[in-house]
Specification:
The protein is of the alpha+beta class. The chain contains six helices and 22 strands.
Length: 460
């Protein structure tokens, strides 16, 4: 079967700016179908949600799958599945139907696929039961169920026990999911499929991808197990590799904080076999956004298997980052020879001011007892042309006093920060203490009043 599945998954879809996540690479391979005949049940969803483009694309994918298997087993010229392998078509909606038995005729298989029409609910349990029934009656060949669906179970008993019973009999289950109107449940597909689910489940939101998914699976099923596997993974420059766990098979090494090489001497040469590698990366860039975790990943083996891995992305949230000061421009300096001391004139440098703090006192006149006062202080800066620029506003509540008569109230230490980069008053840009021109306005009024709107309308 060659490489039957490849996957790359990340542990989360969102991290903070300096957050970490786990990356899992997975690979499954199995023996060559020519020397190891395999009986395959194409189990296809024809429920009502498949109407239109999804059904048409699924048909093309299923027929492509059949054609690739026919060619790989040497039966393409005679229009058959060769080398002792067989394929059957099972379709399901309210219940499952064996549209063919396990046969070798490409024409009969593809005619059965073309005849499918969409309608009804989704009964996954009956689909697994019918597929298992056909495989129970088959030869001692390897047994595979390829189940395609676009939605959740809507009728029939729970399918998980039926799928588990099939796996217990040595049947390998692959699940292809289309995110359709019923919302395919990826976790459920993982539960149905043979472990590890990362290499036995493929999901796409686009019906146009179905033919490619069926084709990739058929091409890999028809090839030999993989030997001398080399996978080179380079993570994005925005991330660094922080640690790596020993792979389940083979060896893995890092040449720097961005590169991993995973080598496997042989995989799936005598039976279906999976391997996984887990490593951890941390985001080090200071920019947010949706980012690809890996920059590139390449695969090679002796058999020439064509393998592609998903390209996962993660949403990075850096919050609000402000860099108020630029770094100073460096001055290059070279010391030659073995001198004990060197004298170098590196030019001028300037003291820098980040700005000033204006502290204001104000007296509010004639504040009567028992009255709270609202005070607003408005600060502007004035340029050489008399134009004013807003520099801030403070709103302050002055508590009521209980003195016997109206009194003046002193309000102290009203503070404004005026950064130097806002200076519009003119002057030498290299000077540290240019004079700056400001205007301050005050607004004050009583908060507490005995005024009330008329509570009753007068009738004349």
């Amino acid at each position: 079967m060659g490489v039957t599945n490849s996957n790359k998954v990340i542990s989360t879809d969102r991290i903070d700016c300096d957050g970490s996540l786990k990356v899992t690479l997975a690979l499954t391979a199995a023996p060559d179908i020519v020397s190891n005949p395999t009986d395959i049940i194409l189990t296809l969803d024809r429920s009502g949600s498949m109407t239109g483009t999804p059904l048409a694309n699924m048909k093309e994918g299923a027929k492509t799958f059949i054609d690739i298997l026919s060619e790989a087993t040497g039966g393409s010229q005679s229009g058959t599945i060769g080398s002792g392998s067989h394929i059957a078509v099972v379709s399901f909606a309210d219940s499952a139907t064996a549209d063919t038995q396990l046969i070798t005729s490409v024409d009969e298989l593809e005619s059965a696929v073309d005849a499918l029409t969409a309608g009804g609910s989704t009964n996954h349990a009956d689909a697994f039961a019918k597929a298992t029934e056909l495989l129970d009656a088959s030869s001692v060949s390897n047994k595979v169920i390829v189940l395609f669906t676009d939605g959740k179970t809507t009728v029939g008993p729970p399918p998980a026990p039926v799928a588990a019973a099939a796996r217990a009999k040595g049947i390998i289950i692959y699940c292809i999911g289309l995110v359709g109107t019923d919302g395919v449940d990826v976790a459920t597909l993982d539960n149905w499929a043979t472990d590890p689910s990362a290499t036995h489940v493929a999901v796409t939101p686009d019906a146009a991808d179905l033919e490619e998914l069926f084709a990739e699976l058929a091409a890999n099923i028809s090839k030999a197990g993989a030997t001398n596997v080399v996978i080179d993974e380079v993570v994005s420059p925005d991330f660094v590799i922080t640690s790596m766990l020993p792979p389940s098979k083979g060896t893995a090494t890092t040449s720097d904080t961005h590169t991993i090489q995973w080598k496997i001497a042989s995989l799936g040469t005598t039976a279906s076999e999976s391997a996984t590698l887990e490593f951890f990366v941390r985001h080090t860039a200071q920019t947010p956004g949706t980012k690809k975790v890996n920059q590139s990943i390449t695969y090679s083996d002796t058999e020439g298997n064509q393998v592609t891995f998903p390209d996962p992305t993660v949403s990075v949230d850096c919050g609000i980052v402000i860099n108020p000061e630029e770094c100073p421009q460096p001055v290059d300096l070279t010391i030659d020879g073995c001198s004990d001391a060197v004298l170098v004139d590196l030019g001028d440098t300037w003291l820098e001011s980040l700005g000033r703090i204006i502290q204001i006192d104000a007296t509010v006149k004639n504040v009567c007892p028992g009255k709270r006062v609202a005070l607003a202080v408005i600060l502007t800066e004035v340029d050489d042309d008399g134009m004013e620029y807003q520099r801030g506003m403070k709103a302050i509540t002055i508590p009521a006093h209980d003195q016997p008569g109206c009194r003046d109230v002193l309000v102290r230490c009203i503070k404004f920060v005026v950064p130097e980069d806002l200076d519009v008053s003119g002057g030498d840009p290299n000077a540290m203490c240019n004079p700056r021109n400001f205007r301050v306005r005050f607004i004050a009024h009583n908060i507490d009043t005995d005024y009330r709107c008329c509570e009753a309308a007068l009738t004349l």
